[in-house]
Amino acid sequence: MRSYSLFTIFLLCVAIVGVDWLTFYWLQSITQRIDSPLLNTAINILFWTFTIGLVSAILILKIKMETLPVTKRQTLISSLYGLTISSFTPKILFVIIISILYFSNYVFSETESLIIVPTVGLLAGFLPFIVIVYAIFKGAYKYKVYRVEVPHKDLPETFNDFKIIHISDLHLGSFNYRYRILERAVRIINELEADIIFFTGDLVNNYAWELNGWDDVLKKLSAKTGKYAILGNHDYGDYSKWKSPEAKTENFKEIKSFYDKIDFKLLLNESVILKKHNQEIAISGVENWGLPPFRQDGDLLKALNNVEDIPYKILLSHDPTHWDEEVIKYTDVALTLSGHTHGMQAGINIMGKQWSPIKYKYKRWAGLYTVNNQHLYVTRGLGWLGFPGRMGMRPEITLITLKKSE
């Protein structure tokens, strides 16, 4: 997870206090109608106790971060992240809405203003709070199966209706060893009876110790033909401070060796060939390749070196920017599978239309994309990182069915 400077954290705390002061100011227009001075005082004390406690916790965590056990940092950071979002977002919306209503209250009579303005303002605050709480406690683990058909003229006839499960971005450290939560996803995947399973990176947040005990869960994943994986940007340990280069190297080795425990073949700039009744398709996997500041260890030419003559190729590449920058420019890969974006873990899906702020950073951020008969599918991910929830962007299990087209 990205580390922010103490000055940046201080500015965040200033913003929190500023928004809380505005919230408190407008809240007085509501609480002043309460007849009990004792209740008014209690509300005020509770309000500022929470604010001071949250700001203090954020600053203390930043200052003491390096002295805390690494096994506790992720849990503490994500907990404060969730608490901050669930507090800050509703309050800022409350301030904006009630300010607009107040300064345009000439639309209402004085009596109506006394009722409408505070009521709408409170709803503007409480509704986002409810949505965020749902996203944290339910939305983050409400798995959804997306079913997609991908046609292509070069698909061998014997691979028509070949079923692929595509998952990505588990970030196992975020689950905090709550194995049963992910076991539900494993059961859903196995019930789909896929021919093959692909995992497109970000197994962990940073550390190999996050994997403790997860082999018993993930080795239960079953597929008829095989299970394949690649690395994501978080699997290299780049977002942590290490005592030595050797410690980082050892961490990386342990993460890679974990795939042997769960019967996945880890593809490191290489390809395998699948044969079915004397017909072939190629499965290629590259290491992480992304635009700066993300590392570019992926070697596409090396990965495709021994499968150039196979017409139908599937590429596993963690970051979807790789598709536009290299894949469709220099190769004839039929289908590329990526993750990385998480769909920002927040978005809107209405009547088949989807939107997320992540679209302003990533051109290809969720779903199926096609350019000149080459396809890219970007999954929204199965885990979470940072904000401990998902709003309108449910954790995804993708079932892709390959189709022979004319």
UniProtKB/TrEMBL annotation:
Pfam hit, one: Metallophos
Q: Which UniProt keywords apply?
A: Hydrolase, Membrane, Metal-binding, Transmembrane, Transmembrane helix
Q: Which SUPFAM superfamilies match?
A: Metallo-dependent phosphatases (SSF56300)
Could you tell me which residue ranges the Calcineurin-like phosphoesterase domain spans?
A: 162-343
One GO biological process this protein is involved in is:
lipid A biosynthetic process
Superkingdom assignment: Bacteria
The UniProt GO MF terms for this protein read: metal ion binding; UDP-2,3-diacylglucosamine hydrolase activity
Give me the segments passing through the membrane: 7-27, 39-60, 80-103, 115-137
One Gene Ontology cellular component term attached to this UniProt record is:
membrane
Question: Which InterPro entries does this one have?
Answer: Calcineurin-like_PHP (IPR004843), Metallo-depent_PP-like (IPR029052), Metallophosphoesterase_sf (IPR051158)
Q: What protein am I looking at?
A: Metallophosphoesterase
